[in-house]
Design brief:
This protein has about 290 residues and is α/β, with parallel strands linked by helices. The protein has two domains: about 25-115, 3-Layer(aba) Sandwich (Rossmann fold); about 140-265, 3-Layer(aba) Sandwich (Rossmann fold), CATH 3.40.50. The chain is built from ten helices and eleven strands. α7 links the parallel β5 (about 160-165) and β6 (about 185-190). α6 (about 140-150) crosses α10. It is globular. The chain starts with a strand and ends in a 5-residue tail after the last helix. Bound molecules: NADPH dihydro-nicotinamide-adenine-dinucleotide phosphate. NADPH dihydro-nicotinamide-adenine-dinucleotide phosphate (NDP) binds near residues 164 and 188. Catalyzes the oxidation of 5,10-methylenetetrahydrofolate to 5,10-methenyltetrahydrofolate and then the hydrolysis of 5,10-methenyltetrahydrofolate to 10-formyltetrahydrofolate.
Length: about 290
């Protein structure tokens, strides 16, 4: 019988500290503020936006949304982005992506203020994650996995960790964060020769491939900790992860569900980053 790692429990445990941090800033006359930049109105962006707004409100962070038309020109997009980037009342910027095909994200990645870059778009923050510099901002989802492990008292130190997926938003930075915690990390992808074996040997297995139910019982070691980052829609139009939960759960010691797992921690990490960004921007380095 495994323990289900519930995102809501992790978020609840983080809430009080975050509220206190927001209050401490307000006492200094700083109203922490996140601005979400959304181009168009994709349903998954809108769903994340609702969750983020609710979480920011709960913590005491102002959350603004700048909605831009889907057919906005590159020039206008960069102008709007820079306006928000230079607005001293904004302490964190979250740009939803992917952007429409005609827009190039690279120019804004290079201009975003590193302290406002709360979801790790810029090379500065990516470099800090890879250098193990804790003043950087890791992608919120990658950090949410670490927070979840911390909450359940699971220490990666000395353990075999396999991460499936090597994107710059989840897999690669997460591998670095787990390496910093002294895990022995294997990073898998579509060209991995024996994925089943790489997964089965893991004491901590993180699935971040975006393939519904790809992690099967045969790929899971006895008593492994299984963290599911995937967000997919199954053949019945239901939200599901990368892990075949019912088949894997009996073999795992700990397992995170989808929905209700890592995704529920991500907005709390986002809030933590906005608060830290607000402190850094006001030269409060505690
Ligand atoms: P990407 O599509 O950018 O990357 C997927 C990665 O998984 C790639 O490295 C790919 O390998 C690898 N992969 C895909 N299929 C296989 C396979 N069959 N075997 C081995 N490796 C495979 O996805 P993201 O990293 O952006 O997202 C991953 C998942 O996490 C998605 O389901 C996404 O929805 C979810 N997600 C969840 C968030 C949350 O808050 N919980 C936030 C962000 C993402 P290769 O490099 O070789 O192509």
């Amino acid at each position: 019988m495994s323990t289900t790692m519930k995102g809501a429990e992790v978020a609840k445990a983080m809430k009080e500290t975050l509220i206190r941090e927001a209050e401490a800033l307000k006492e200094k006359g700083i109203l922490p503020c996140l601005t979400i930049i959304r181009v168009g109105a994709r349903p998954d962006d809108l769903a994340y936006e609702r969750g983020a707004k609710k979480r920011m409100e709960l913590i005491g962070i102002e959350c603004r949304v700048r909605e831009l038309p889907e057919d906005i020109s590159q020039r206008e997009f960069e102008k709007e982005f820079q306006k928000i980037n230079q607005d001293p009342s904004v302490h964190g910027i979250l740009l939803f992506h992917p952007l429409p095909d005609h827009l190039d994200e690279k120019p804004v990645k290079s201009i975003i203020h590193p302290y406002k870059d709360v979801d790790c778009m810029s090379d500065v923050n990516i470099a800090k994650v890879f250098a193990g510099d804790e003043t950087g901002f890791a992608p919120c989802t990658a950090e949410a996995v670490v927070r979840m492990l911390d909450h359940y008292g699971i220490d990666p130190k000395g353990r075999k960790v396999t991460v499936v997926g090597r994107s710059m938003v989840v897999g690669k930075p997460l591998a670095m964060l787990l390496l910093d915690r002294h895990g022995t990390v294997t990073l898998c992808h579509t060209r991995t020769a024996d994925l089943e074996e790489e997964c089965r040997k893991a004491q901590i297995l993180v699935a971040a491939a975006g393939k519904a139910g790809m992690i099967t019982e045969a790929m899971t070691g006895q008593d492994a900790v299984v963290v599911d980052v995937g967000i997919n829609v199954d053949e019945n139009d239901r939200l599901c992860g990368d892990v075949d939960f019912d088949a894997v759960e009996p073999r795992a010691s700990y397992i995170s569900p989808v929905p209700g797992g890592v995704g529920s921690v991500t907005t709390s990490v986002l809030a933590a980053h906005v608060l830290r960004g607000a402190r850094y921007l006001n030269s409060i380095f505690v």
